[in-house]
Amino acid sequence: MIVDHNESLDRIARALGERYRQAPYILNVPGQSVACKVDAFHYLAIQPMFVKYLAQWAAMLPARVEETLLKTGSMLSDASRVKHYHQIRVVEEGGGEAKAIGASFVLATFIDHALSLYGGGERPLPLSGLRIAAGEREALAPFFAGRTPLQDLAFAGD
Fold first, then answer.
1. CA angle (130, 136, 139) in 5-degree steps
2. Is the bond into 48 cis (omega within 30 degrees of 0)?
């Protein structure tokens, strides 16, 4: 059976946009959101919460949401296309203690497009107040090999 990932991706985008219109705090609010924009090209998605909630909103199985995002390149994975999720430390802007979370990286073009089409967003969201602990840079570097790397402003000091 051939799966139409573009149809599934549109369904996910529509669900994300509609949910954002009802509850804008689902994005870009550290400590409350399923994903926060960390640079112009990437959102850091809190896992497994991000996939779980997208699946609920789109009325799809979590495995199908995950597969769709990975196969379309909307959510980044390693070279083996198996690992897409990392345990990393993050810090809220303005200080505070670093917290370890499960995280994936989602292309900003996917989320920003979903918000502009279905969420009533007139322009892309600004960067959130969430930063990745600087000590994670080296561990994440191989994951971004051959891709647009995380910009320096995605990282905070340790």
1. 140
2. yes
